[in-house]
Amino acid sequence: MKVLIVEDEKPAAEKLERYIRQYDETIEIIGRLDSVTKVTDWFSNGHPEVDLLFMDVQLTDGYVFEVFKQVSIEKPIIFTTAFSEYAIEAFKVSGIDYLLKPITYEAVAGSLKKLDKLRSNLALNKPSDQLQQLAQALTQLQKKNYKNRFMVRVGEHIQSVTAEQIAFFYAVDRDVFLYTTAKKKYIIDYTLEELEEILDPVLFFRANRSFILQINAVSDVLMYSNSRLKIHLHQAFDKEIIVSRERVVQFKEWFNGLS
């Protein structure tokens, strides 16, 4: 198997290559690239065929997803990054797995085993049939069921709140609250980190350490100091909601329907 590594940090690339060879010493690393430009050139200029790519999300000259706007890559890809918010985008472009840094050998081995399993499940038919089966397998990997309702307690009663009825979630110390479009507040047994994993990223966005917003609850967005954003909601609330500077780009993509 021929593998191409796309990583802009030399120590990270070397460690990844070491883990790949540890998993299977017969795997051939045919190249290491560190920029969007180099990856685009590689696939535009007829370089050697690859069987698998490991791709870091953030490269020296931008996000790796820019590559897919310029060239077509119909090979399985394992993405690596320090940021979890790019997972959905990764699975839209042939991603079969998404590894969070710091990368461990166990994570790399797990991804390669997943690829082996995908390939073993493909029938040995003509190439066009194999491509179709691989596409179907990738589609199954990409599917995810998001939580669309929450059970809450109201005194001695139990009620169900749908995702569409939620305006936002917010944390106060160790408690997390669900706030509805009807201005009702309920404590729930989830952390914001857990909610990020189970909520539909098209509907919900983690604005900062304390808030996860629902798209339909946002009434206005204002430019704020230090390149941040201030959010106004349809539901009056007594706390400021500021999108932290490191999340502004992702917020704009979400708000524009690009999540």
TrEMBL record:
Ranges of residues in domain HTH LytTR-type: 150-257
The UniProt record lists the keyword Secreted: no
SUPFAM superfamilies (UniProt xref): CheY-like (SSF52172)
Location of 4-aspartylphosphate modifications: 56
GO molecular function: DNA binding; phosphorelay response regulator activity
Family annotation (PROSITE patterns): HTH_LYTTR (PS50930), RESPONSE_REGULATORY (PS50110)
InterPro entries, alphabetized: CheY-like_superfamily, LytR-like, LytTR_DNA-bd_dom, Sig_transdc_resp-reg_receiver
Record-annotated membrane-spanning stretches: none
Pfam families: LytTR, Response_reg
Ranges of residues in domain Response regulatory: 2-116
This protein's record includes keyword Nucleotide-binding: no
Key words, A-Z: Phosphoprotein
Name of the protein in question: Response regulator transcription factor
